[in-house]
Design a protein that fits this description.
Blueprint: H1 11-39, H2 41-44, H3 50-57, H4 62-73, H5 79-86, H6 92-105, H7 111-120, H8 123-137, H9 139-151, E1 154-159, E2 165-170, H10 173-183, H11 198-210, E3 219-223, H12 224-228, E4 237-238, H13 246-254, E5 259-263, E6 269-274, H14 281-291, E7 306-310, E8 325-329, H15 330-337, E9 342-345, E10 351-354
Parallel strand pairs: 3-5
Antiparallel strand pairs: 1-2, 3-4, 5-6, 7-8, 9-10
Helix pairs in contact: 1-4, 3-4, 4-6, 6-8, 7-8, 8-9, 13-15
């Protein structure tokens, strides 16, 4: 009996063939979309524009709808590009960029200058090439468009029910590039143990960057019981924040320019002033020279982005001297105080970390 060998299907060929077929349908859809726009049916049915009608009735997002309308509206200016699409030399994504560019540039649009670029580049890269082309044709118009984007910058800060700061905003390309340039280096994973998502690393990078690598200049109001972390103590208070935990108060007091406001249990102010335990300039320089970077195993965050951490907190009698201090980056400093991790310095001056889930000795049996 002959064994039949299953036919091997070239998945790549299948995908490119399907995409070419879909691009052809997209082109047909764009042509009908332009005719639909001219018919004003969307207006008669009470929609603001044809794209809104298409969003609801064709189940499309706004960008896809406007792309179709842009290609269909400027069909006369895109004849060479449409032929290239049908020949499989470019995709509908290229054509959509062409349509938007034709709409923005008007009579200055020259398809013959852009089509070779479309054939040579992916849609994303082609978009950047088009920006250079637009600048070369009319630098003044390009600058005005950039200025309009700058004028539309916005940033909204609001506080959620749990006290978290919610940030919403839009930056112009130059402002956005400046922010990303500042954050990207700080948002890199800090070692093999770093299981944060990219979004979490960017959030930490924002806080780290805004602090400028310097101790925070904050005012914290707390009772002595809160500072010592005693059971039953109220939380600490800080401007622009909901009540903060005693662990957070201790971390900020570990190496921060904290202005303390200490209260008695009756909420009477009993002390206002700078903490005496802040690491001095000379000691701070010696600490940074000795450690060089975050001492958490596997982390190489530079000294300029680190805090000095008391291995034995001064509130528990630990001295503010070099032997009792190590450099920790903001993330690892938080992991020690709020996260429950422990740091131990060995007799060979090595730092050992102990996870909060690790216990020593045998579990206690039943009484």
């Amino acid at each position: 009996m002959l064994e039949m060998t299953p036919e091997v299907v070239d998945k790549g060929f299948l995908l490119t063939s399907l995409r070419h077929f879909i691009d052809g349908l997209e082109l047909d859809f764009a042509r009908y979309a332009a005719e639909f726009d001219q018919s004003k049916q969307w207006d008669e049915e009470g929609f603001n524009n044809p794209a809104d009608w298409m969003r609801f009735n064709c189940h499309m997002n706004s960008q896809a709808a406007w792309n179709a309308l842009g290609v269909g509206e400027h069909e006369a200016k895109l004849s060479q590009s449409m032929a290239a699409l049908l020949a499989g030399e470019i995709g509908f994504a290229h054509l959509a960029i062409m349509g938007r560019t034709a709409d923005q540039m008007g009579k200055a649009f020259d398809e013959s200058k852009l089509l070779p670029l479309a054939k040579e580049n992916s849609p994303g890269k082609f978009y950047y090439k088009v920006l250079h082309y637009k600048h070369s044709v009319d630098a003044g118009a390009y600058n005005r468009a950039q200025e309009e984007l700058a004028e539309e910058r916005s940033l909204r800060l609001s506080t959620a029910e749990d006290g978290c700061l919610v940030i919403r905003g839009v930056l112009d390309p130059i402002g956005g590039a400046a922010v990303r340039t500042a954050l990207e280096p700080l948002a890199q994973p800090s070692g093999a143990h770093d299981d944060r998502t990219r979004e979490q690393r960017l959030a930490d990078a924002l806080v780290e960057r805004l602090s400028g690598g310097q101790p925070a200049n904050l005012q914290v109001t707390a009772t002595i019981e809160t500072l010592k972390g005693l059971a039953g103590a109220a939380a600490g208070e800080m401007e622009f924040s909901f009540p903060i935990s005693s662990s957070s108060v201790q971390r900020m007091a570990c190496d921060c320019s904290v202005t303390r406001v200490l209260l008695s249990q009756e909420s009477v102010t009993i002390d206002v002033g700078r903490s005496k335990r802040v690491i001095s300039g000379g000691l701070n320089r010696a600490l940074k020279a000795r450690d060089g970077h975050c001492r958490w195993p596997g982390c190489e965050r530079s000294a300029s982005m680190c805090d000095g951490h008391h291995l034995v907190h001064w509130i528990h009698g630990g001295p503010t001297d070099l032997d009792n201090l190590v450099l920790l980056c903001r993330r690892h400093h938080r992991m020690v105080h709020e996260g429950g991790w422990q740091l131990i310095k060995t007799e060979h001056q090595e730092i050992v970390t102990i996870a909060p889930t690790i216990t020593f000795g045998l579990p206690r049996g039943p009484d």
